[in-house]
Protein backbone atom coordinates (compact mmCIF):
# COMPACT_ATOMS: atom_id res chain seq x y z
CA UNK A 1 0.00 0.00 0.00
CA UNK A 2 2.72 2.43 1.02
CA UNK A 3 4.54 1.61 -2.19
CA UNK A 4 1.47 2.30 -4.30
CA UNK A 5 0.93 5.60 -2.52
CA UNK A 6 4.53 6.60 -3.10
CA UNK A 7 4.18 5.96 -6.78
CA UNK A 8 0.98 8.03 -6.81
CA UNK A 9 2.80 10.92 -5.18
CA UNK A 10 5.60 10.65 -7.73
CA UNK A 11 3.10 10.69 -10.56
CA UNK A 12 1.51 13.78 -8.99
CA UNK A 13 4.84 15.67 -9.02
CA UNK A 14 5.56 14.45 -12.53
CA UNK A 15 2.19 15.74 -13.72
CA UNK A 16 2.56 19.13 -12.06
CA UNK A 17 6.05 19.50 -13.53
CA UNK A 18 4.61 18.76 -16.97
CA UNK A 19 1.93 21.35 -16.36
CA UNK A 20 4.53 23.97 -15.33
CA UNK A 21 6.71 23.18 -18.36
CA UNK A 22 3.74 23.30 -20.67
CA UNK A 23 2.71 26.68 -19.24
CA UNK A 24 6.21 28.05 -19.71
CA UNK A 25 6.35 26.78 -23.28
CA UNK A 26 3.04 28.43 -24.06
CA UNK A 27 4.21 31.72 -22.48
CA UNK A 28 7.31 31.55 -24.67
CA UNK A 29 5.24 31.02 -27.83
CA UNK A 30 2.94 33.90 -26.92
CA UNK A 31 5.86 36.19 -26.06
CA UNK A 32 7.58 35.51 -29.39
CA UNK A 33 4.35 36.31 -31.17
CA UNK A 34 3.96 39.51 -29.12
CA UNK A 35 7.41 40.63 -30.26
CA UNK A 36 6.61 39.86 -33.88
CA UNK A 37 3.23 41.61 -33.70
CA UNK A 38 4.50 44.46 -31.45
CA UNK A 39 1.83 43.87 -28.83
CA UNK A 40 3.64 46.07 -26.33
CA UNK A 41 2.93 49.42 -24.89
CA UNK A 42 4.54 51.74 -22.39
CA UNK A 43 2.91 53.21 -19.31
CA UNK A 44 4.41 56.35 -17.81
CA UNK A 45 4.57 56.98 -14.06
CA UNK A 46 5.28 60.48 -12.72
CA UNK A 47 8.33 61.31 -10.62
CA UNK A 48 7.68 64.31 -8.42
CA UNK A 49 10.12 66.67 -6.70
CA UNK A 50 10.06 67.20 -2.94
CA UNK A 51 9.10 69.44 -1.33
CA UNK A 52 7.94 71.49 -4.33
CA UNK A 53 5.57 68.81 -5.76
CA UNK A 54 6.73 69.74 -9.25
CA UNK A 55 6.79 67.10 -11.95
CA UNK A 56 10.33 65.96 -12.78
CA UNK A 57 9.48 63.43 -15.45
CA UNK A 58 8.24 59.87 -15.87
CA UNK A 59 9.44 56.28 -15.68
CA UNK A 60 8.54 54.15 -18.70
CA UNK A 61 7.03 50.81 -17.67
CA UNK A 62 6.57 48.03 -20.19
CA UNK A 63 3.10 46.60 -20.73
CA UNK A 64 2.11 43.48 -22.65
CA UNK A 65 -1.55 42.88 -23.39
CA UNK A 66 -2.09 39.47 -24.93
CA UNK A 67 -5.43 39.03 -26.72
CA UNK A 68 -6.16 35.85 -24.75
CA UNK A 69 -4.24 36.29 -21.48
CA UNK A 70 -5.04 39.97 -21.02
CA UNK A 71 -2.35 42.10 -19.36
CA UNK A 72 0.79 40.16 -18.36
CA UNK A 73 3.01 41.62 -15.63
CA UNK A 74 6.58 42.53 -16.60
CA UNK A 75 7.68 40.73 -13.44
CA UNK A 76 6.38 37.57 -15.15
CA UNK A 77 7.58 37.96 -18.73
CA UNK A 78 10.83 39.95 -18.46
CA UNK A 79 12.75 37.11 -16.78
CA UNK A 80 11.61 34.80 -19.60
CA UNK A 81 12.49 37.40 -22.25
CA UNK A 82 15.98 37.61 -20.71
CA UNK A 83 16.33 33.85 -20.77
CA UNK A 84 15.29 33.29 -24.38
CA UNK A 85 17.15 36.22 -25.93
CA UNK A 86 14.18 38.51 -26.51
CA UNK A 87 15.13 41.26 -24.05
CA UNK A 88 17.51 42.93 -26.53
CA UNK A 89 14.87 43.63 -29.22
CA UNK A 90 12.22 44.44 -26.59
CA UNK A 91 14.60 46.74 -24.71
CA UNK A 92 15.59 48.51 -27.90
CA UNK A 93 11.92 49.13 -28.72
CA UNK A 94 11.37 50.48 -25.19
CA UNK A 95 14.30 52.90 -25.51
CA UNK A 96 13.23 54.20 -28.91
CA UNK A 97 9.57 54.57 -27.96
CA UNK A 98 10.28 56.22 -24.61
CA UNK A 99 12.76 58.71 -26.11
CA UNK A 100 10.32 59.64 -28.89
CA UNK A 101 7.54 60.29 -26.37
CA UNK A 102 9.77 62.33 -24.05
CA UNK A 103 11.04 64.45 -26.93
CA UNK A 104 7.48 65.78 -27.18
CA UNK A 105 7.38 66.94 -23.54
CA UNK A 106 8.56 70.37 -22.42
CA UNK A 107 12.22 70.39 -21.33
CA UNK A 108 13.68 69.59 -18.89
CA UNK A 109 11.16 66.82 -18.08
CA UNK A 110 12.98 63.51 -18.03
CA UNK A 111 12.28 59.93 -19.00
CA UNK A 112 13.61 56.94 -17.04
CA UNK A 113 14.04 53.61 -18.82
CA UNK A 114 14.71 50.27 -17.13
CA UNK A 115 17.70 48.38 -18.53
CA UNK A 116 18.07 44.63 -17.99
CA UNK A 117 21.48 43.29 -16.97
CA UNK A 118 21.30 41.12 -20.11
CA UNK A 119 21.30 44.26 -22.29
CA UNK A 120 24.87 44.96 -21.17
CA UNK A 121 26.07 41.76 -22.84
CA UNK A 122 27.43 42.02 -26.34
CA UNK A 123 28.56 45.65 -26.09
CA UNK A 124 25.66 47.04 -28.09
CA UNK A 125 23.93 49.09 -25.42
CA UNK A 126 25.87 52.32 -25.93
CA UNK A 127 25.13 52.29 -29.67
CA UNK A 128 21.47 51.41 -29.11
CA UNK A 129 21.04 54.29 -26.64
CA UNK A 130 22.87 56.66 -28.98
CA UNK A 131 20.61 55.66 -31.86
CA UNK A 132 17.44 56.15 -29.77
CA UNK A 133 18.62 59.63 -28.76
CA UNK A 134 19.58 60.57 -32.31
CA UNK A 135 16.32 59.31 -33.81
CA UNK A 136 14.20 61.19 -31.26
CA UNK A 137 16.26 64.34 -30.93
CA UNK A 138 15.97 64.05 -27.12
CA UNK A 139 18.73 65.81 -25.17
CA UNK A 140 20.83 63.07 -23.50
CA UNK A 141 20.55 64.81 -20.11
CA UNK A 142 16.79 64.12 -20.16
CA UNK A 143 17.31 60.34 -20.38
CA UNK A 144 17.88 58.28 -17.24
CA UNK A 145 18.74 54.60 -17.33
CA UNK A 146 17.66 52.53 -14.33
CA UNK A 147 19.82 49.55 -13.53
CA UNK A 148 19.63 47.02 -10.73
CA UNK A 149 22.42 45.29 -8.91
CA UNK A 150 22.13 42.41 -11.31
CA UNK A 151 23.84 44.50 -13.98
CA UNK A 152 26.93 45.14 -11.87
CA UNK A 153 27.07 41.75 -10.28
CA UNK A 154 28.67 39.36 -12.71
CA UNK A 155 31.36 41.02 -14.74
CA UNK A 156 31.96 44.65 -13.80
CA UNK A 157 34.69 45.87 -16.17
CA UNK A 158 32.69 45.89 -19.46
CA UNK A 159 29.56 47.05 -17.63
CA UNK A 160 31.42 49.88 -15.91
CA UNK A 161 32.93 50.85 -19.25
CA UNK A 162 29.47 51.05 -20.84
CA UNK A 163 28.11 53.07 -17.91
CA UNK A 164 30.97 55.54 -18.13
CA UNK A 165 30.50 55.85 -21.89
CA UNK A 166 26.78 56.52 -21.41
CA UNK A 167 27.51 59.10 -18.76
CA UNK A 168 30.06 60.65 -21.07
CA UNK A 169 27.24 61.12 -23.58
CA UNK A 170 25.33 63.05 -20.89
CA UNK A 171 22.86 60.27 -20.00
CA UNK A 172 22.09 59.88 -16.31
CA UNK A 173 22.26 56.58 -14.42
CA UNK A 174 20.02 55.51 -11.53
CA UNK A 175 20.36 52.59 -9.16
CA UNK A 176 16.95 50.89 -9.01
CA UNK A 177 15.51 48.86 -6.11
CA UNK A 178 18.24 50.08 -3.77
CA UNK A 179 18.60 48.01 -0.64
CA UNK A 180 17.16 44.75 -1.91
CA UNK A 181 20.34 43.13 -3.20
CA UNK A 182 23.28 41.60 -1.44
CA UNK A 183 25.74 44.46 -1.70
CA UNK A 184 23.94 47.64 -2.60
CA UNK A 185 26.45 49.75 -0.67
CA UNK A 186 29.49 48.42 -2.47
CA UNK A 187 27.94 49.31 -5.84
CA UNK A 188 27.69 52.93 -4.78
CA UNK A 189 31.49 52.90 -4.54
CA UNK A 190 31.94 51.20 -7.89
CA UNK A 191 29.95 53.70 -9.91
CA UNK A 192 28.93 57.33 -9.38
CA UNK A 193 25.17 57.00 -9.83
CA UNK A 194 23.17 60.16 -10.36
CA UNK A 195 20.18 58.83 -8.48
CA UNK A 196 19.30 56.19 -5.90
CA UNK A 197 15.80 54.73 -5.99
CA UNK A 198 14.92 53.43 -2.54
CA UNK A 199 12.99 50.20 -2.92
CA UNK A 200 9.31 50.22 -2.14
CA UNK A 201 9.68 47.56 0.55
CA UNK A 202 11.29 50.21 2.80
CA UNK A 203 8.61 52.76 1.96
CA UNK A 204 5.89 50.22 2.71
CA UNK A 205 7.43 49.57 6.11
CA UNK A 206 7.93 53.26 6.89
CA UNK A 207 4.34 53.53 8.11
CA UNK A 208 4.63 51.03 10.86
CA UNK A 209 8.17 50.05 11.71
CA UNK A 210 10.88 52.33 12.99
CA UNK A 211 13.65 50.35 11.28
CA UNK A 212 12.37 50.98 7.76
CA UNK A 213 12.05 54.68 8.56
CA UNK A 214 15.59 54.77 9.91
CA UNK A 215 16.88 53.09 6.73
CA UNK A 216 15.18 55.66 4.52
CA UNK A 217 16.69 58.52 6.54
CA UNK A 218 20.12 56.91 6.36
CA UNK A 219 19.94 56.35 2.58
CA UNK A 220 18.74 59.93 2.02
CA UNK A 221 21.71 61.20 4.04
CA UNK A 222 24.07 58.86 2.23
CA UNK A 223 22.80 60.07 -1.14
CA UNK A 224 23.18 63.70 -0.11
CA UNK A 225 26.76 63.19 0.99
CA UNK A 226 27.64 61.27 -2.19
CA UNK A 227 25.98 63.89 -4.41
CA UNK A 228 23.31 61.44 -5.56
CA UNK A 229 19.62 62.30 -5.60
CA UNK A 230 17.29 59.96 -3.70
CA UNK A 231 13.84 58.91 -4.88
CA UNK A 232 11.42 56.89 -2.77
CA UNK A 233 9.45 54.32 -4.77
CA UNK A 234 5.98 52.96 -4.11
CA UNK A 235 4.56 55.78 -1.98
CA UNK A 236 0.85 55.08 -1.57
CA UNK A 237 -0.35 57.04 1.46
CA UNK A 238 -0.05 60.64 2.72
CA UNK A 239 1.56 59.23 5.87
CA UNK A 240 4.30 57.57 3.83
CA UNK A 241 4.79 60.78 1.87
CA UNK A 242 5.28 62.87 4.97
CA UNK A 243 7.68 60.27 6.40
CA UNK A 244 9.85 60.18 3.32
CA UNK A 245 9.77 63.96 2.97
CA UNK A 246 10.80 64.24 6.61
CA UNK A 247 13.58 61.75 5.93
CA UNK A 248 15.06 64.10 3.35
CA UNK A 249 14.34 62.27 0.09
CA UNK A 250 14.60 64.47 -3.00
CA UNK A 251 11.70 62.99 -4.91
CA UNK A 252 8.88 60.48 -4.85
CA UNK A 253 7.26 58.03 -7.24
CA UNK A 254 4.17 56.04 -6.31
CA UNK A 255 0.44 55.57 -6.68
CA UNK A 256 -0.20 58.56 -4.40
CA UNK A 257 1.47 61.04 -6.75
CA UNK A 258 0.52 59.26 -9.96
CA UNK A 259 -0.20 55.79 -11.31
CA UNK A 260 1.44 54.51 -14.47
CA UNK A 261 -0.63 56.06 -17.29
CA UNK A 262 -0.97 55.94 -21.08
CA UNK A 263 1.31 58.15 -23.19
CA UNK A 264 -1.50 60.60 -24.03
CA UNK A 265 -2.25 61.27 -20.35
CA UNK A 266 1.45 61.64 -19.54
CA UNK A 267 1.77 64.14 -22.38
CA UNK A 268 -1.16 66.17 -21.07
CA UNK A 269 0.30 66.17 -17.55
CA UNK A 270 3.69 67.17 -18.92
CA UNK A 271 2.27 70.18 -20.78
CA UNK A 272 0.20 71.24 -17.78
CA UNK A 273 3.20 70.92 -15.47
CA UNK A 274 5.26 73.33 -17.51
CA UNK A 275 3.14 75.98 -15.80
CA UNK A 276 3.76 76.11 -12.04
CA UNK A 277 1.07 74.25 -10.08
CA UNK A 278 -1.42 76.27 -8.07
CA UNK A 279 -1.02 75.48 -4.34
CA UNK A 280 -4.47 73.85 -4.35
CA UNK A 281 -3.43 71.48 -7.13
CA UNK A 282 -0.09 70.59 -5.60
CA UNK A 283 0.26 67.08 -4.40
CA UNK A 284 1.69 67.23 -0.90
P1 LIG B 1 10.65 48.95 -11.16
O1 LIG B 1 11.55 49.48 -12.20
O2 LIG B 1 11.14 49.02 -9.74
O3 LIG B 1 9.28 49.72 -11.34
C1 LIG B 1 8.42 50.07 -10.30
C2 LIG B 1 7.26 49.11 -10.18
O4 LIG B 1 6.47 49.47 -9.06
C3 LIG B 1 6.29 49.17 -11.37
O5 LIG B 1 5.73 47.87 -11.53
C4 LIG B 1 5.23 50.14 -10.88
O6 LIG B 1 3.99 49.99 -11.54
C5 LIG B 1 5.15 49.73 -9.43
N1 LIG B 1 4.66 50.80 -8.57
C6 LIG B 1 4.84 52.13 -8.71
N2 LIG B 1 4.27 52.81 -7.71
C7 LIG B 1 3.71 51.89 -6.88
C8 LIG B 1 2.95 51.97 -5.66
O7 LIG B 1 2.71 53.04 -5.10
N3 LIG B 1 2.54 50.78 -5.11
C9 LIG B 1 2.82 49.58 -5.69
N4 LIG B 1 2.37 48.48 -5.09
N5 LIG B 1 3.52 49.46 -6.86
C10 LIG B 1 3.95 50.61 -7.43
P2 LIG B 1 5.63 47.16 -12.94
O8 LIG B 1 5.25 48.17 -13.97
O9 LIG B 1 4.78 45.94 -12.76
O10 LIG B 1 7.11 46.71 -13.25
C11 LIG B 1 7.75 45.76 -12.45
C12 LIG B 1 9.23 45.67 -12.79
O11 LIG B 1 9.40 45.18 -14.12
C13 LIG B 1 9.94 47.02 -12.77
O12 LIG B 1 10.27 47.40 -11.45
C14 LIG B 1 11.15 46.70 -13.62
O13 LIG B 1 12.12 46.02 -12.86
C15 LIG B 1 10.58 45.73 -14.63
N6 LIG B 1 10.32 46.48 -15.88
C16 LIG B 1 9.25 47.24 -16.23
N7 LIG B 1 9.40 47.75 -17.47
C17 LIG B 1 10.60 47.32 -17.92
C18 LIG B 1 11.35 47.51 -19.14
O14 LIG B 1 10.97 48.23 -20.06
N8 LIG B 1 12.56 46.87 -19.24
C19 LIG B 1 13.06 46.10 -18.21
N9 LIG B 1 14.24 45.49 -18.39
N10 LIG B 1 12.40 45.91 -17.06
C20 LIG B 1 11.19 46.52 -16.91
MG1 LIG C 1 12.63 51.10 -12.46
MG1 LIG D 1 12.30 49.77 -8.41
MG1 LIG E 1 14.02 68.61 -4.11
Helix content: 40-55%
Say which molecules are bound, naming each kind only once: ligand C2E, magnesium ion
Mean pLDDT: 90
Which strand order does the major sheet show? Answer: 1-2-4-5-6-7-8-9
What is the overall silhouette?
globular
Strand content: 15-25%
Number of strands: 9
Element string (H = helix, E = strand): HEEEHHEHEHHEHEHHEHEH
The end-to-end span amounts to 67 Å
User: Radius of gyration over alpha carbons?
Assistant: 21 Å
For the sheet with most strands, the description reads: 8 strands, mixed, barrel
Separate helix tally: 11
The structural class is alpha/beta
Uncertain stretches of 5 or more adjacent residues: none
Topology:
Blueprint: H1 2-37, E1 40-49, E2 55-66, E3 70-72, H2 74-83, H3 87-103, E4 110-114, H4 125-136, E5 143-147, H5 149-153, H6 157-169, E6 172-178, H7 184-190, E7 195-198, H8 200-206, H9 210-226, E8 229-233, H10 238-247, E9 251-253, H11 263-273
Parallel strand pairs: 2-4, 4-5, 5-6, 6-7, 7-8, 8-9
Antiparallel strand pairs: 1-2, 1-9, 2-3
Helix pairs in contact: 3-4, 4-6, 8-9, 9-10
The structure holds ligand C2E and magnesium ion (3 copies).
Domain EAL: 24-274
Organism: Roseomonas haemaphysalidis
Protein name: EAL domain-containing protein
Amino acid sequence: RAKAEGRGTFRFFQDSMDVAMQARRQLEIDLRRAVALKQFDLAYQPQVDLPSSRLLGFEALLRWRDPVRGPVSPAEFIPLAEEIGLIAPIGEWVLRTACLQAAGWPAPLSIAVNISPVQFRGNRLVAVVGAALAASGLEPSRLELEITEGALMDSSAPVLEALHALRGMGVRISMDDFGTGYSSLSYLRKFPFDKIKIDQSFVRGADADAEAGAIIRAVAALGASLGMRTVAEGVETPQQLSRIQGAGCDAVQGYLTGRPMPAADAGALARQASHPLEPAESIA
